[in-house]
Design goal:
Blueprint (H helix, E strand, L loop, with lengths): L3 E10 L2 E4 H9 L3 H8 L3 E4 L6 H15 L7 E7 L10 H13 L7 E5 L5 H14 L7 E10 L12 E11 L4 E11 L5 E2 L7 E2 L1 H21 L19 H16 L3 H10 L11 H16 L2 H10 L7 H4 L6 H16 L7 E8 L3 E9 L3 H6 L3 H7 L1 E2 L2 H11 L16 E7 L5 E6 L1
Parallel strand pairs: 2-13, 4-5, 4-6
Antiparallel strand pairs: 1-7, 1-8, 2-3, 6-7, 8-12, 9-10, 11-12, 14-15
Bound molecules: coenzyme A.
The site of coenzyme A has 21 residues, from helix 2, helix 6 and helix 7.
Length: 445
């Protein structure tokens, strides 16, 4: 079977940032540690007035195409995953292709373009579509650009306001990839849920507490399905476990649940039995409530053990480094988590070739997916090319008043004429409206 996976990845953050403990917390009258320790976030990234889902997607894609020396005719597919689309008919991928064509002077007329929607899991679904297109042999040697791009803004005053973010991740999917190869095994957990939705509205309606519970329930189902498909979930068999990261505190909960589930019946459970006992089994309880209480107590005790803490610090924490500084990027979040982990391994001088990742994606509404990936020999050269640190450092740090202006500038219901805070250079910018209400773009040298 052909080896298919991610050949290269590029990241583009919004050019503005909001300091959560320093600027947001005092205005909200909250303890800064609610954000840094509770949610696990230090800052959010925001789009400047000339940025949107198209500019960020096109900027990440141009960087990727230039450094991989690709021409438009090498690309047979452009899929965009987003939950921030501004058009119910014309897909974002057509706008992105239009931007790239302006720079290349040649076209993507033979590339299949589309847009995927299923909340934050759509990026992973698009990867899957590209995988299937290539594995079926219909790609004729061409590659797929899979782009996850979002401006994750909430209504002012919504509990989700602290978790906002904006950015794009472009991934090149190809045969014999340089970065990671996908496993054939996959697991799904999917149910009709009402936890987060945008019924033809810009900002989401969110039941935040419920969305946390739905995330955990669907992730657990996906894990069981992955195991049923023959997938291995032993926690020690993975170098990193990138999860969808709406905020790092969510991943802390998901990791504890996943670890507890996966260690059941393993040598680790036996080794820990003297310290915290064995996991409660449902058949030992007449009452479901009592079982749930017992399993919660066991999970809490487990997360306090040195064994768990070491595992978490090694396998999960490095996936959160970038997310802590940018907030939620919706469809791109899990892909940022993967990149963050690989970047951390590069910095630590770890050799990851042949090591495996277990990737847990989630989208509200709701669906989770789990698959494994194997790190390829070219990973170091690929990750070395990322300039995410520079991008994060160069962001303009917003004051509270400026944050309010930027939020208004991106609010479709507010008339705003605020000036940009940064000066674009070597990037695509939003350039006003066309005669049919379409958004227009241009490249600024
Ligand atoms: N020091 C340390 N931790 C603190 C703290 C402090 N001073 N104050 C609060 N915390 C902790 C809380 O205990 C909680 O942690 P826990 O869940 O482990 O108990 C965490 O910080 C968040 O506090 P909480 O009061 O629950 O925050 P909130 O009600 O304002 O909002 C969400 C939390 C997730 C509901 C909100 O951010 C949201 O709606 N987000 C959007 C939806 C989302 O991202 N869902 C995730 C699934 S996709």
């Amino acid at each position: 079977m052909t080896s298919v996976g991610i050949d290269a990845i590029e990241i583009w953050t919004g050019n503005l940032t909001l300091d959560l403990p320093g600027t947001f917390a005092p205005e909200k009258g909250e303890d800064p540690e609610k954000y840094t320790k509770g949610l696990g976030l230090h800052a959010s990234s925001f789009p400047d007035t000339y940025e949107d889902i198209v500019t960020m997607a096109a900027n990440a894609s141009l960087r990727l195409m230039e450094r991989k020396d690709l021409e438009p005719e090498d690309v047979g597919r452009i899929d965009v995953a987003t939950e921030s689309a501004f058009d119910n008919s014309k897909p974002v991928s057509t706008y992105v292709a239009g931007c790239l064509e302006e720079v290349y002077g040649s076209d993507f007329h033979h590339a299949n373009k589309g847009e995927r929607k299923f909340a934050c899991i759509a990026g992973t679904q698009s990867l899957n579509d590209a995988y299937n297109w290539i594995a079926s042999g219909r790609n004729r040697g061409r590659k797929a650009l899979v782009i996850a791009t979002d401006t994750a803004l909430y209504a002012r005053g919504d509990a989700g306001e602290a978790t906002q973010g904006a950015g794009a991740v472009t991934m090149l999917v190809d045969e014999d990839p340089d970065l990671v190869e996908f496993s054939a095994e996959q697991g799904y957990g999917s149910a009709d849920e009402t936890d987060f939705l945008k019924p033809n509205q810009q900002f989401p309606s969110v039941d935040g507490k419920r969305s946390v519970q739905v995330y955990l329930a669907r992730m657990r189902e996906a894990m069981e399905d992955f195991e049923a498909a023959g997938g291995d979930t032993h926690p020690d068999n993975f170098a990193y476990i990138p999860f969808h990261t709406p905020f790092p505190g969510m991943v802390r909960k998901a990791a504890a649940l996943g670890y507890r589930h996966a260690l059941r019946g393993t040598d680790i459970e036996s080794d820990l039995a003297d310290e915290i006992g064995r996991q409660p089994r449902p058949e030992a309880f007449d009452d479901q409530e009592e079982y749930l209480e017992a399993i919660k107590e066991y999970t809490d005790a487990l997360t306090e053990t040195d064994h768990y803490r070491d595992w978490y610090a090694r396998t999960v924490d490095p996936t959160l480094d970038v997310s802590r500084e940018v907030g939620n990027w919706y469809t791109a979040s899990v892909h940022l988590a993967r990149a963050s982990a690989l970047r951390s391994a590069l910095d630590a001088g770890t050799d990851l070739t042949g090591e495996r990742l277990l990737v847990g994606s989630y989208g509200s509404g709701a669906q989770a997916e789990i698959h494994a990936e194997t790190v390829q020999p070219g990973w170091r050269d690929e990750i070395h090319q990322l300039n995410v640190e520079e991008q994060l450092e160069e962001r303009y740090d917003l004051s509270w008043d400026e944050y309010e202006q930027v939020h208004d500038a991106h609010n479709h219901d507010v008339d705003s004429d605020v000036e940009s805070f940064t000066t674009p250079s070597g990037e695509f910018v939003f350039d006003g409206w066309g005669r049919m209400g379409e958004r227009q773009y241009r490249y600024v040298e």
